[in-house]
Amino acid sequence: MNFADSEIVASLLKKEGHEVVADIEVADFILINTCAIRDNAEQRIRKRLRELRALQQRHPQLRIGILGCMAERLQNQLMVEEENVSFVVGPDAYRRLPQMLEQVRQAGVKAAETELSTTETYADIEPVRLGSNGISAYISIMRGCQNYCAYCVVPYTRGRERSRDPETIVAEAKGLFEQGYKEVTLLGQNVNSYRWQAGEERVNFPELMRRVAQISPLLRVRFATSHPKDLSDELLEVMASYDNICKCIHLPVQSGSDRMLKLMNRHYDSAWYLDRIAAIRRYMPECSITTDVIAGFCTETEDDHQMTLDMFRKVRYDYAYMFKFSMRPNTYAEKHLQDDVPEAEKTRRLEEIIALQGQIALENNRREVGRVYEVLVEGESHRSKMQLFGRNSQNKVLVFDRHEVQPGQYVRVRVTDCTAATLIGELVEEN
Ligand code: SAH
Ligand code: SF4
Questions:
Q1: 197 CA distance to ligand 1 centroid (A)?
Q2: Distance between CA 336 and CA 150 in Å, rounded?
C-alpha cells in the first residue's frame, strides 16, 4: 500500500514541477513513507532519521518529511520528538503536499496535515511508477479499513473504508497494459469489501476483477488482501473462470484458536476458515494459499499456540508472513487487554511457527518437481546474469537458464529442483 501511495505522491509532486532524484545528495526534500503496524516498523524510521542527520548537516537546505501511518498516528508530536523532521502528512492529505513543500521551503516553518477523509481515493491521479521493472504494477482500489481487529492500528491511521471508481481502475490497468505492463495487483486492506455504487450501477469486487481480467488475456491480475470473513464463492468462481486471474490467495488467519480469533475480533472461527480453504481448493485445486499469523497475542496460552501450529499443518500454506504481537496505541487491545505473553515466550512460539512453515513450504515445493508452469519473466536472477527469474500464476518464483528469453515474456518452465523459497527449472521448448 505504501509503495502504491508513494507513486501517487510522486505524481502529485511531478505536476508541480518536482522530480524524483536517484542521488540523495542532491535532494531538496526527503519524503519517508511510513508504516505503524508494529513498533519495530516505527523504530526503523527513527533509526533512519538519526542516520540522515549527517546529510542534513552537509546540506542545511534539505527538508525531511514523514508521510503515511506513523505521521497520522503521531502528528505534531513526531516533529517534537524528531527535531530534524520539518513536516508530517497523513495518508489522506497528500494533495496538500505541493503547497506544504513551498511553505516549508520559503517560510522555513514546520507543517502538519493529518486530517483523514471519508472520500479521498486519489482516483484521478495517475501514479508515477517508481523503481518499476515495467512489467508489474500496483493499483490501489480502496482505502482505509473499519474491521477494527483488536490488535490493529490501521483503522486509526488510514480512516474509514472507501472504494475507488471502477472506471478509473479499469482505465489505469488498461493504460498500464498499453505501456507494456503484463501484471497488475489490485490493492486494499480488505478487497472483498470493495463496493461501488453510482445511480443504478453497483460493482462489487468479483465484478471489478472480471472487468480488469477482460482487458486482455495477456494481462495477469492479482489482488491483496482478502479477509476470510467475506471471501465469497462468487469471487472464487470468477477467479476460476479467467486464466489470467492468478491462482493465489492471501488469506490471513492470524491464529488457529477460536478463543484468540474471537478476542482479536476477526469475525470468523477456525471451522469457517477451514471451510473457506476447502472452497478455494474445490474451485481451484491448483491455487496457492498464503497467510499472516501473529504469535503471542494477549492471553495466548500454549494450547492456543498449538492450535495455530495445527492450523498450519491442516492448510499447508505456500508462504506465510509471521509476526510477534506488538501492542499498538489506541487499539482495543491496548485499552482493554494485557500484553501478558513474555517476550521470550513470543519469540519461542514465533520460531516454532517459522520452523514448521519452512518445512511445509519445502515439502510443497518438492511436489512441484516435474510440473510445467507458464512463467512471466521479471528479470535477471540475483545469483547469475545467465539466469532469469519470474513467477507462475501461484506467485512462486522460478529460476532458469536464460537462453534467448527477455524479461516481460511469458515462457513455459519445467520444475527440476527446489528450495523452500524458490523453484528451479528449465525452459520447455515450444513446438
Ligand atoms: N488488512 C490486512 C492486513 C494488514 S496488516 C488483513 O487484515 O489481512 C498486515 C499484517 O500485520 C496483519 O495481517 C497481521 O498479521 C499483522 N499485524 C497487524 N497488527 C499487528 C500487531 N499489532 N502486532 C503484530 N502483527 C500485527
Ligand atoms: Fe487491520 Fe484487521 Fe483492518 Fe486488516 S482487517 S487492516 S488486520 S483492522
A1: 29
A2: 9
For ligand 1, is residue 37 a contact (CB within 6 Å)? yes
Collect all residues with Cβ–Cβ distance below 8 Å to 235 and sequence separation of at least 6: 192, 205, 206, 209, 226
Q: pLDDT for 315-334, tens place per residue? A: 999 999 999 999 999 999 99
Answer for the pair 317, 396: CB distance below 8 angstroms, yes or no. Answer: no
User: How many CA atoms are closer than 13 Å to the CA of 319, on its beta-carbon side?
Assistant: 13
Ligand nearest to the CA of 255: 1
Measured from the CB, is residue 158 less than 6 Å from ligand 1? no
CA-nearest residue, atom 5 of ligand 2:
147
Name the pTM for this structure. Answer: 0.96
Pair type for strands 387-391 and 397-401 = antiparallel
Q: In what order do the strands lie in the sheet with 136-140?
A: 136-140, 183-187, 220-224
> Under a CB-based contact definition with an 8 Å cutoff, are residues 169 and 194 in contact?
no
Q: Whole-angstrom distance between the N-terminal and C-terminal Cα of the chain?
A: 41
The three cell numbers of residue 88 are 508530517
Q: Which of 314, 258, 243 is nearest to 281 (CA)?
A: 314
Cβ–ligand 2 contact at 250 (below 6 Å)? no
C-alpha–C-alpha distance, residues 297 and 213, integer Å: 38
What the block records as the C-alpha cell of 342 is 513474555
pLDDT class for 131, splitting at 50, 70, 90?
confident
Over the stretch 137-178, which tens digit does the pLDDT of each residue have? 999 999 999 999 999 999 999 999 999 999 999 999 999 999
If phi over 0 gives left and psi between -120 and 50 gives alpha, with beta otherwise, what is residue 401?
beta
Closest C-alpha to 366, from 419, 313, 320, 413: 419
Give 154 Cα–ligand 2 centroid separation in angstroms: 6
**AA identity, residue 223:** F
Task: Tell me which ligand sits closest to the C-alpha of residue 291.
Answer: 1
In this predicted structure, what is the pLDDT of residue 314? 98
Assess contact for 290 and 223: CB atoms under 8 A. no
- Which listed ligand is nearest to 35 at the C-alpha? 1
Residue 431 pLDDT grade (very low, low, confident, very high; cuts 50, 70, 90): low
pLDDT per position as a tens digit, 402-420: 999 999 999 999 999 999 9
Please report which helix (H) or strand (E) contains residue 49, including its range.
helix 39-51
DSSP classification of residue 239: H
Question: With contact defined as beta carbons under 8 Å apart, do 148 and 332 qualify?
Answer: yes
Atom of ligand 1 nearest to the CA of 250: 8
